[in-house]
Write a structure and sequence with these properties.
Layout (H helix, E strand, L loop, with lengths): L5 H21 L14 H23 L13 H21 L1 H13 L7 H22 L13
Helix pairs in contact: 1-2, 3-4, 4-5
């Protein structure tokens, strides 16, 4: 079978693999029922939808002809590494510095991946997203995420 769109094939493969991996991971949690979903219910549903989407994209890439084979092209390594590194940095810093300081650090670090970095926009986005995260995760969901740096740490 000939791949008619490389870009669609490999993006569909990525969706399929990630969806299946997360679905497997979600089996570790209680599913509950549709009326009373457990902690694994939403991740499982989302993972299955992602895997199905990946399978559909793969099928499309094998059946619908794309002009020139729709090659993948070069991988944008800098943005990929900056974004992944920023997320790792966030995970390391969150328990130490708290959400109020770590969220702006994440936004600033991720902004460096793009070509149009402007301090004004980044600082405004940092402030807005920090307040939004506080409202959603602390006030709305009542999660026990540290807000500020641990005293004496």
């Amino acid at each position: 079978m000939k791949i008619k769109s490389q870009r669609d094939f490999f993006s569909g493969l990525m969706f399929l693999v990630v969806g299946l991996a997360f679905a497997y991971g979600a089996t570790e949690y209680s599913m509950g029922s549709a009326a009373r979903p457990g902690p694994g219910y939403f991740p499982m549903i989302l993972s299955v939808i992602m895997a199905i989407l990946g399978a559909v994209v793969i099928f499309t890439s094998l059946t619908i002809e794309a002009e020139g084979g729709d090659p993948i092209g070069d991988i944008a390594w800098r943005p990929l590494l900056v974004i992944v590194g920023s997320i790792v940095l966030f995970g390391v810093l969150l328990p130490r510095l708290g959400m109020i300081l770590t969220t702006p650090i994440l936004i600033i670090a991720v902004s460096l991946a793009g070509q149009q970095f402007k301090w004004t926009g980044v600082l405004i986005a940092s402030a807005v997203l920090t307040v939004f995260c506080w409202l959603v995760f602390i006030k709305g969901l009542a999660l026990t995420i540290p807000l500020w740096p641990a005293v004496g740490a």
